[in-house]
Design a protein that fits this description.
single chain, about 550 residues, Ubiquitin-like (UB roll), Porin, about 55% strand, globular
Length: about 550
């Protein structure tokens, strides 16, 4: 109908041929316009969002808007009942002033998407803000930045327990990681496990007085000793931070044990003192590569007394005292290739993964002239690599630590780990971890059991100076946001492990196997721990089942 009216109009204006040419031309114009509309509506990705972000880069930030969400969305019918409203009422949402002090930009600065992404990582690393989104929108000749954060529940008052085979632990605690919304941590805890009972008091602040300084105070009084810690540092707060410095003091006195078949076989008193003072600077490096050098002083003093076998009054050979004191030099290199992933350790929480390679190495020169007992070189280093390919997260790690005591290797531990995980609500995960040692100190051992990934046996069942463990598991999400509190999934797994060079208890006598099933809960609204695992495993010796309840992720 519309085409007929247009034809009649042009015919009346004179000249059928001219009218037909104009008509055909306008049809082509209309067709082009219609195709343009289809592209915009149906294929908005043709207009790249990255291009829009690039166009905003460098524009001044005119205003920053903060949008803080409480733990539960009470406008949602699923979380509108009184328990969720009550939880929101007693929870103090993170304050805008604190969030402003943690991000790396302010009004008037040029907009930089990389700086915004790093600011989001810093906020997520606090473990009580997740998810976090920082986005820019054009306005006039600048941008408006919106920072959207979602609080997690951070207050724990009550009883907590854990099970790893025959070992059980429980605690009574008051633990608040975001006190009054200022990001400060306060913890009062009574904990009892198979080794001791302990009262612990902790205060921590990730941003002292709104500065870049961090502080932590800890005092613990246990049935077999005490512990005091003091940390004050101005760290490499961001990748671009040019300088860093700080200090740490740690004094820890307690009874330490050696294990065999999951039982204490020997033990005695250990007095540990650690003092670290350091200063660091960022070095020139290629784009997206960060290199840092730190210089400092390191004191590590360990003293031992009254060691004996648990099963008899016979004295156990007391470990040698060690005093390491002297200057320390350390180097690290990381790549600015972070990505935000979901579906790795949990099912839905945002996780920041550093892709590419990272490397660190350090050496401490200990001499009697610096306060050390004998000439020593203390060495440590680590390398890691992360890559994502076809829906898999592939991970590799190598680490080493040890000493040269008068030129002889001592207490050297070297290991590697290769792991792979399918990302998303279901898929496979696998890991191989191997560690070996040279002239391991007498108070150290490389045990294997449920606490190290061989889930069919009690912790510290198998002794060794070397160990290897392989884990294979398949998991799938059963229910997302169950009761609006957590996502829950099922895990099917199998493990294999081996130790060698046993000194205080039996080794595995070959390779040991286990298999089992577990539940994995992704605590979507809780910041204390992101995952909760319940595993039930059966060992290859038919010795019954081993139950594990823990908030520690295996991968």
């Amino acid at each position: 109908m519309g085409s007929c009216l247009i034809e009649q109009y042009f015919l009346r204006q004179g000249g059928a041929q001219r009218s037909i040419r104009i008509l055909r031309t306008n049809r082509r114009i209309r067709l082009a316009l219609m195709m343009g509309i289809i592209i915009v509506v149906v294929c908005p990705s043709a207009f790249s969002e990255e291009t829009a972000e690039d166009n905003l880069s460098g524009r001044p930030i005119l205003r920053i808007e903060y949008h803080q969400s409480n733990v539960f969305d009470t406008s949602d019918p699923a979380t509108s009942s009184w328990p969720y409203r009550w939880a929101n009422a007693i929870h103090i949402t993170t304050r805008e002033t604190f969030i402003r002090s943690m991000v790396l930009f302010s009004e008037g600065d040029p907009w930089d998407p990389a700086v915004a992404a790093e600011s989001a990582r810093i906020l997520r690393s606090l473990d009580f803000l997740n998810p976090v989104f920082i986005e820019a929108y054009p306005e006039a000749e600048g941008v408006i930045v919106r920072i959207r954060t979602h609080d997690k529940w951070t207050l724990q008052v009550g009883v907590k327990f854990g099970i790893q085979g025959s070992r059980k632990a429980f605690s009574l605690e008051f633990d608040e990681k975001n006190f009054l919304g200022w990001g400060r941590g306060m913890k009062l805890e009574y904990q009892k496990d198979h080794e001791r009972s302990t009262w612990t008091y902790i205060y921590s602040d990730p941003n002292l007085f709104g500065s870049r300084w961090r502080g932590r105070l800890l005092f613990a009084n246990s049935s077999d000793g005490q512990r005091e810690e003091l940390l004050a540092e101005r760290p490499f707060f961001a990748l671009a931070t040019p300088k860093a410095w700080g200090g740490e003091w740690n004094h820890w006195r307690q009874v330490e044990y050696l294990y065999g078949e999951g039982e204490q076989v020997a033990g005695g008193h250990r007095d540990f003192r650690l003092l670290r003072l350091w200063w660091g600077t960022r070095l020139p490096a290629p784009e997206r590569t960060i290199r840092r050098l730190s210089l400092g002083f390191h004191l590590d003093k360990r003293e031992f007394r009254d060691w004996r076998w648990e099963s008899s009054p016979t004295p156990f050979p007391t470990p040698d005292d060690v005093t390491i004191s002297g200057p320390r030099l350390a180097f690290e290199q990381v790549e600015d290739r972070y990505r935000v992933l979901t579906g790795f350790r949990g099912f839905s929480a945002q996780e920041d993964i550093a892709f590419g390679s990272s490397f660190r190495a350090g050496v401490t020169v200990s001499m009697p002239g610096f306060g050390g007992d004998i000439p020593r070189l203390v060495l440590d280093g680590a390398w890691s690599h992360r890559v994502q390919k076809n829906g898999w997260l592939l991970m590799g790690d190598i680490w080493t630590s040890g000493r040269l005591d008068d030129g002889s290797a001592a207490n050297v531990v070297t290991g590697f780990q290769a792991a792979a995980s399918q990302l998303g609500p279901r898929g496979w995960q696998l890991r191989l971890k191997v560690e070996d040692s040279i002239d391991l100190d007498r108070e150290h051992q490389l045990t294997l059991g449920a606490d190290r990934g061989l889930r069919g046996w009690d912790p510290d069942t198998f002794d060794g100076t070397g160990r290897a463990v392989f884990n294979l598991q398949w998991r799938t999400l059963l229910k997302e946001d169950f009761l609006s509190l957590f996502s829950i999934g099922i895990v099917l797994f199998a493990d294999a492990g081996k130790t060698w060079g046993a000194r205080f208890g039996p080794d595995t006598d070959g390779i040991r196997f286990d298999a089992g099933v577990g539940l994995l809960a992704d605590m979507t609204h809780v910041g204390i721990s992101n995952v909760l695992r319940l595993d039930v495993a059966v060992p290859d010796d038919g010795g019954g089942v081993t139950v594990i309840v823990t908030s520690t992720a295996l991968f």
